[in-house]
Amino acid sequence: MIFRDAVQTATRSLRHGKMRSILTMLGIVIGIASVIILMSIGKSAQDYILNQVQSVGSNLMFVIPGGSNNGRLSSPAASQGIVITTLNERDVTALLREPSISAVVPEVRGQADVIYGDNDVVEGYEGTTANFFTVRNMQLEKGYPFTQNDVVSENHVAVIGNELAKTLFGQFVDPIGKFIRLKNVSFRVVGVLIPKGTGVGGVDIDNLVIIPTTVAQHELLGINYYNDLNVQANDAYDINFVKSRLAFVLQHNHGITNSAKNDFTIQTQADILSILGSITSVLTLFLAAVASISLVVGGIGIMNIMLVAVTERTKEIGLRMAVGATNRDILEQFLIESVFLCFFGGIIGIAMGAIVVTGIYFLVTGFTTVAWTFAFPISAVVLSLVVSTVAGIAFGIYPARKAARKNPIEALRYE
């Protein structure tokens, strides 16, 4: 029998039992759709996270207290509750004298009840300087950012996130000029940020309270050090050169002669993007691997149904052998049926996955402020088709061989 005849025979057999063919494909359809959906969501999430990091500018560096381990960011102090006080105003002053650095923005952080009237929510607050809004590309929906004079004079002013403004003031009350309380300290709201989402370090900008760093240090936290420094490189200098100068200034300030004993870690945007890219890629592959388990289940279902089909069609197999069909012909027919079931199941699964991914995109962008991107990686489609075809061969080979090895005389006598 030529291959074309085997294909026609297999197709005819599948059409004869339409309902069984559809139910057999269902496992593969669900498995392929799951792989497509999870890989697409993973890619969209990766794009979203990386875009959020890139939005603060490519010439920004972050100085974090605590040394690094083999070039990687380590946070044993933070994880163990150890407070590191090595970054202070003396470091900021020294760095601002460096020509390759255009701006230095210190940050301190805390969490407190944010109160307005009867509304009370626990949110994070950030103490920083006036340059924060420019350096971190923070744009305001209404009002204005506080000034450096507010920082020096320790004025009680605040810029709040978009979602926090809605939570505290609702849709009809203008937050500008209103007073909120943090730890029983009153702050006048002077600005509301545009929707921003999650920023660097996983900070929820939309629910953040931003206040002058002097007020945060002296009245809310009682400290004289900084949690981190945002350093903006001068565009006239190479970012790696600026990083080396930044390290040199801090080492000189802290009396460090051996770079292996640095009590700070410097990260550029490229470092952060590399770390986040690696993490999100691994998570996407992990999600795809979990979804692939359903492919195995679907493949086992196909093998089970094909074994039943071999038993039901024993007499047909014996008759075909009696009129000249070889073992190879029988093997080809059943193997082609299995591959067809998986392949067409894969096609349907890809279509279903595309529909769900598109629906998720419109739901997220239509009902939230998240800047979600539509991602439908071709690699996921190719992988799905290859996997479904290979699954058809892998799970169809045993039933096909069992059919091909039947004794024609016993098959003809089978009832």
Overall description:
- This protein is of the alpha+beta class and 415 residues long.
- The protein has helices spanning 3-16, 18-54, 76-79, 89-96, 132-135, 148-153, 162-169, 213-221, 239-254, 269-312, 314-322, 327-367, 378-404, 408-412; strands spanning 60-65, 101-116, 119-128, 140-143, 157-160, 179-182, 185-193, 209-212, 228-233, 264-268.
- The protein folds into two domains: 3-53 and 274-412, no CATH class; 85-262, no CATH class.
- It contains 14 helices and ten strands.
- The chain has a six-stranded mixed beta barrel with strand order 2-3-8-5-7-6.
- The chain is elongated and about 100 Å long.
Mean pLDDT: 80
Major sheet strand order: 2-3-8-5-7-6
Q: State the helix count.
A: 14
Shape: elongated
Task: Give a quick precis of the structure.
This protein is of the alpha+beta class. Helix content is 56%, strand content 16%. The radius of gyration is 32 Å and the shape is elongated.
Layout of secondary structure:
Elements: H1 3-16, H2 18-54, E1 60-65, H3 76-79, H4 89-96, E2 101-116, E3 119-128, H5 132-135, E4 140-143, H6 148-153, E5 157-160, H7 162-169, E6 179-182, E7 185-193, E8 209-212, H8 213-221, E9 228-233, H9 239-254, E10 264-268, H10 269-312, H11 314-322, H12 327-367, H13 378-404, H14 408-412
Parallel strand pairs: 3-8, 5-7
Antiparallel strand pairs: 1-9, 1-10, 2-3, 2-6, 2-9, 4-7, 5-8, 6-7
Helix pairs in contact: 1-12, 2-10, 2-12, 2-13, 4-9, 10-12, 10-13, 12-13
